Amino acid sequence: MNTKKKTRGAGGTVKRTVRLLKDAFSGEETAIDLLKAQHEEVAALFKKIEKTSARAQKTKLFDEMASKLAGHDAIERELFYPACEKAMGMTDLLGEALVEHGIVEFSIYQADQARQGKDFQFKCTVLSEIVEHHVKEEEEEFFPKVEKAIGKDKLVELGARMKERFEESQAEDYRAAVQNNLKQVFAGALKPAKKVKPTAA
Ligand SMILES: [Fe+2]
Ligand SMILES: [Fe+2]
Question: Which ligand is nearest to the Cα of residue 162, counting in written order?
Answer without folding.
Answer: 2
